Amino acid sequence: MSERMIGHDEAWRIWRAAIAGERMHHGWILAGREGLGKASFARAAAAELVAEPGVPQPPVEAHPDILTLFPLPANDDEAKKRDEGKPYQLKRSISVDQVRALQRRLTTRPTLGRRRAVIIDSADLLEKSAVNALLKSLEEPPVGTFFLLVVHALGRLLPTVRSRCTVVRFHPLSASDVSRALDHAAPELDAETRKGALAVAGGSPGAALAFAAQDLGKAQALFARIVEHGDPDLSLRGALAGALGARPDRERIAAAIEAARMTVVGALDRVDDAAKVRLVEVHARLVRLAGEAPIYNFDPSMLTMEIGSLLASAAPTREGAR
Known about the structure:
Layout: H1 9-20, E1 27-31, H2 38-50, E2 66-69, H3 76-83, H4 96-105, E3 116-121, H5 128-139, E4 145-151, H6 159-162, E5 166-169, H7 175-185, H8 191-201, H9 205-214, H10 217-229, H11 235-244, H12 250-267, H13 273-292, H14 300-313
Parallel strand pairs: 1-4, 1-5, 2-3, 3-4
Helix pairs in contact: 4-5, 8-9, 9-12, 10-11, 10-12, 10-14, 11-14, 12-13, 12-14, 13-14
Organism: Novosphingobium subterraneum
Keywords: Nucleotidyltransferase, Transferase
Protein name: DNA polymerase III subunit delta
């Protein structure tokens, strides 16, 4: 069993029952927090959907009947990095031009069989005009075309889109399932990194893998010290800036915010009621910061300081009691 099959038995049951039925719904929303494996599920589900008995099927990435929309490279330089197989930055949204280009492809029949799958990863990133354009396809779907919308925050999706789709909810995995997924995807991790990744996972294999890939062990240790002891002389926040680096990219910042959030969650069981109130407030502000960071051009050093200051405000110190 591959890592993308771990922990989502109910989602697979719903999907396969629909495929086996006589009238499968054309629109599907795969909803749940980021990092649970929804996109991997979408790719595997799409492969099952388009498969035809006796017809050889190419890999998902090269399949003519599996179309995927996701943000393009941020600029020409980032596109060049992509073409060279190097890490590259993405744009912050999926444009209306991308949706319209997709719709032009939907005017033809599927290539290898009766069905075509369209994956949007993720629908949270669609521009407003792109959502409106997509609605036309959801309202009048081409014959044999099925849409799988990966959604991290269902509440941000327009009701008109939700009403035209079947929603499948993805829930955090058990600790044992996250451990299995981590072992499968990154068996090379040393014991310390693996322990830290599991500590901040919160049921999300993606969060665990991002933590490991970004080498956030030192930063997470500082998060924990700030939450527990505060940072009255700003020394820990200074060390945190060094641990995260002078110019962390968006992926590193996102992983750091998630690690900070899970550090707060882990502290909830060890404090009194008054401290829990502060931790809950800090958790909400970190969630908000995670949503804002990909959209706004924050100065990385100021963003690092903001994370540290939020954690310090939860500590049982004079700074936290303000």
